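Tutorial, part two.
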Amino acid sequence: MNRRKFLSLAALATQLPGPLCAEDPPPTADEVLRLVRLSYALQNYKLTGQLRDDDSGATQPFELTMAERVIRFRFSNPNEIINLDLATSPPTLSRVVAGGRQEVPLSMLGAPVRGMAVSYEDLALRFLDWPNGQMLGDDKVATVRCWKVRVTSPDGAGAYGTVDVWVHQESGGMAQMEAYDRGGKKIKKFQVRKIQKAGDATVLKEMRIETFDPASGKTVARTYMSMDKPEKN
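Running the prediction step on this input gives:
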């Protein structure tokens, strides 16, 4: 995808005037991440899925809805709803539990969700909103051409100091991420393993989420997020 096509898609999504020059440089890191975030914000689907721990085989079913710029994960036993409101800047992450609704505090961002290798920070994909990204160039994930972008935490909240993101050049979707602590040690990796079509949109079918021991570099937990066929809201 060249810059002209890329910015045309972004302009369509935001209803802004499209680019006029056919010979533009590649998109910037911030433009790439902005389009990834927009691709989530503009979707309008309902899906069912599950988190599965690779070691124990334990599963956590959930329902995912994306509508009106809100992404909602609904779990049961015990009941918990995790809301990500993309209409605010930065997006607002909140939980609804038995005691009522509350924003997820910064101190809780790194906490595991339902005992899995996925945190509240992971569900929110906070790193997509970090400013001043650095474009590291082209790369491939499973033979798919991607842009590789590096972002650094602007606020020191959560577990991640730096995150590298691979974005599929053709679809604008996230293909992979690797997160590092503030000492530069890798502690988390997402990799999209399967995708599926929902109308003209491409949505997740399966993603592998791994947690690493920063000292040894060994995998200490692995969770799979799988999604069923989406339904239009």
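Confidence is low (pLDDT under 50) at residues 4-22. In part three we will examine how such features are distributed along the chain.
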